[in-house]
From TrEMBL:
<feature type="transmembrane region" description="Helical">
    <location>
        <begin position="46"/>
        <end position="69"/>
    </location>
</feature>
<feature type="transmembrane region" description="Helical">
    <location>
        <begin position="75"/>
        <end position="97"/>
    </location>
</feature>
<feature type="transmembrane region" description="Helical">
    <location>
        <begin position="6"/>
        <end position="25"/>
    </location>
</feature>
<protein>
    <recommendedName>
        <fullName>Bacterial Pleckstrin homology domain-containing protein</fullName>
    </recommendedName>
</protein>
<keyword id="KW-0472">Membrane</keyword>
<keyword id="KW-0812">Transmembrane</keyword>
<keyword id="KW-1133">Transmembrane helix</keyword>
<feature type="transmembrane region" description="Helical">
    <location>
        <begin position="109"/>
        <end position="130"/>
    </location>
</feature>
């Protein structure tokens, strides 16, 4: 539930920023960069109230959705949805703030909305791609891992293979993707050191292979039966 508590912290900070906007609406973007002459043409009082409502709603909804998804076992989806909810809240905030600004220039609002919309699209796409499980199969004398940080491991380079119910503790991520449950890329594990991970921590078992070239590699799938089948295929080849 670590992701749920992080979500509560972030949501709480957004709610606090909403309350702050009631006190100092002039700090809201894009008002913070305006001259005094420009600020005189902004209805700061009503802008602050509307911003407060939008930010409080964004903080509560994003934290609540993240908490629910974490509680039912979808922490990675919870983080993804929370980020996208916050960005969407930012887009709504910019659109609402425009209503209270009588200055003729609207470029700062359009720029802000376009920027956040692009951010929404890019982040959403990246999180979706990163959260997808790696494809893992044994074919043509190799263990083929496709997707992010994919690689191919010739079976004749595998020196040891074992199946584990749990992984050693992760000490550090050196070059990879870490999304609560999904771990891909280069990591350091307790008592193992440098290794490659292609795992979803929600699902057990895990396959651990040691090669003469790459070193330690750990992987699993979201189907325990498939993970065991892959282990049997690799084990039978290594023990021949």
């Amino acid at each position: 539930m670590e992701g749920a508590y992080i979500g509560l912290l972030i949501g709480g900070m957004i709610v606090l920023s909403g309350l702050l906007s009631l006190w100092r609406p002039d700090l809201l973007s894009p008002f913070s960069g305006m001259s005094k002459t420009e600020l005189d043409k902004v209805d700061l009082k009503h802008a602050g109230k509307s911003a407060c409502a939008v930010l409080i709603a964004t903080g509560i909804v994003s934290a609540a959705v993240n908490w629910f998804l974490c509680a039912v076992g979808y922490a990675d989806a919870g983080i993804t949805v929370m980020v996208l909810t916050i960005v969407l809240g930012g887009i709504i905030l910019m659109a609402v703030m425009r209503k209270y600004d009588s200055n003729p220039s609207a470029w700062r609002y359009r720029f802000g909305i376009i920027f956040m919309a692009l951010f929404f699209l890019v982040v959403g796409t990246l999180l979706l791609v990163w959260s997808r499980p790696n494809g893992i199969e044994v074919k043509d004398g190799k263990v083929v891992i496709s997707g992010n940080y994919g690689m191919e491991v010739p079976l004749d380079e595998i020196r040891m293979v074992e199946m584990l119910d749990s992984l050693p503790e992760i000490e550090a991520r050196t070059n990879g993707i870490g999304m609560v449950h999904v771990q891909k890329g280069n990591f350091r594990l307790d008592r193992v050191g440098a290794c490659r991970l292609y795992v979803n921590m929600k699902y057990s078992p895990f396959v651990h292979i040691v090669t003469s070239d790459t070193g330690h590699i750990f992987f699993n799938t979201d189907d325990p039966a498939l993970t065991e089948e892959l282990y049997d295929m690799i084990s039978s080849s290594v023990n021949q």
